[in-house]
């Protein structure tokens, strides 16, 4: 008999829905994969750089309008959407306090300046340590979602082994942050290195982390062999010992910190004449990929104990941390290969991550 697992509906707690007509298509893919909500990243065009529509901050999108746009696109399926405020140079501590007080602002997102797709509005981390922004977040219980990479490094330092951009950030910046703001809620996003995993493990309980399917499944070697550019995302895939640390963290039966955040990032123009944009699209297929990754990590998903570890990672830890409405319904995945199709969008196509990979998908949505 084909193995099936029934899971509560879940929240993807790190994803990119983009803007305009892309929102409807990407949200639909999330609905297809059992999501009842998400934490939708603010690196849109223009960025989500203000809290309320009435705030007069450049031509930025507002948290309240973008949240409503996504809720509407889900056709009533989404129970809740968290839109973090993009931390730009234009953010003032008062905006955070006011947004939190009204219940509109739950999180803010730090991007290293020019560190990834849509990160051009980011500003140096130290600035927010000093200008009252992180202090206002700590005081009002707003979560800081961090893209934890040092910025401004040369290419060879950025991807250096042992001292790469993420390792430097978790060795230097993060300890300072949690010492200075001991009550600040922090989510370390899309971890890729053992250094970062060890940091999160050793930090207080309110410091958590998201992990993507691709960082659990692949290493830099997979990307380089055949230059599989659909696997190019930031932070870059790392080495075997890093992947092992991630796998151990998410599959540990005692895990209370590491949860699902796909970083699904659609790019209609992934390839440029001399390179490619960072971001992997996993909309519609993420639970299947996570299940495959857990099996690759040695978890037996045919037994209750294995399923429990998986359920906690996908459906429970993050939902509890963000105090999101509990799921009433369920969805089912089964162990049969899924036939993936490119997503058509505004006359262009978005290629989901596993298309063209050597490893075919082993799970599908029932
Ligand atoms: N992960 C990525 O490589 N890209 C993301 C941005 C990000 O979170 O880095 C994107 O929006 O395309």
TrEMBL record:
Protein name: Dihydroorotase
GO molecular function: dihydroorotase activity
PANTHER family noted in UniProt: DIHYDROOROTASE
Signal peptide: none
GO BP of this protein: 'de novo' pyrimidine nucleobase biosynthetic process; pyrimidine nucleotide biosynthetic process
GO CC terms, sorted: cytoplasm
InterPro entries in alphabetical order: DHOdimr, Metal_Hydrolase
Coiled-coil annotated residue ranges, if any: none
């Amino acid at each position: 008999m084909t193995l099936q697992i029934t899971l509560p509906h879940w929240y993807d707690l790190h994803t990119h829905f983009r803007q305009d007509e892309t929102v409807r298509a990407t949200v639909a893919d999330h609905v297809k994969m059992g999501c009842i909500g998400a934490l939708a990243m603010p690196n849109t065009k223009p960025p989500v750089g203000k809290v309320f529509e009435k705030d007069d901050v450049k031509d930025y999108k507002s948290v309240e309008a973008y949240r409503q746009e996504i809720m509407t696109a889900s056709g009533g399926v989404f129970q809740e959407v968290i839109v973090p405020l993009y931390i730009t140079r234009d953010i003032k501590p008062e905006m955070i306090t006011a947004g939190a007080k009204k219940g509109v602002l739950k999180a803010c997102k730090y991007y290293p300046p020019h560190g990834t797709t849509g990160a051009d509005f980011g500003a140096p981390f130290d600035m927010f340590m000093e200008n009252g922004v992180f202090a206002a977040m700590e005081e009002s219980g707003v979560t800081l979602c961090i893209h934890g990479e040092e910025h401004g490094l040369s290419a060879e330092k950025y991807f250096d082994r042992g001292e790469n951009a993420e390792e430097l950030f978790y060795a230097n910046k993060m300890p300072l942050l949690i010492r200075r703001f001991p009550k600040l809620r922090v989510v370390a996003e899309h971890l890729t290195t053992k250094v970062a995993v060890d940091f999160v493990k050793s930090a207080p309980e309110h410091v958590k982390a998201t992990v993507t399917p691709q960082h659990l499944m692949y290493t830099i070697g997979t990307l380089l062999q055949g230059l599989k550019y659909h696997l190019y995302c930031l932070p870059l895939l790392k080495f075997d010992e890093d992947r092992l640390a991630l796998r151990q963290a998410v599959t540990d039966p005692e895990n209370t910190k590491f949860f699902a955040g796909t970083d699904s990032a659609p790019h209609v123009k992934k390839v440029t004449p001399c390179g490619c944009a960072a971001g992997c699209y996993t909309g519609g297929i993420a639970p299947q990929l996570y299940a495959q990754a857990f099996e690759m990590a040695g978890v037996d998903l045919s037994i209750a104990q294995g399923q429990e570890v998986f359920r906690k990672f996908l459906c429970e830890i993050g939902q509890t941390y963000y105090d999101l409405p509990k799921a009433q319904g369920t969805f089912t995945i089964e162990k049969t290969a899924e036939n993936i199709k490119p997503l058509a969008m505004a006359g262009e196509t978005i290629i989901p991550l596993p298309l063209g990979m050597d490893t075919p998908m082993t799970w599908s949505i029932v």
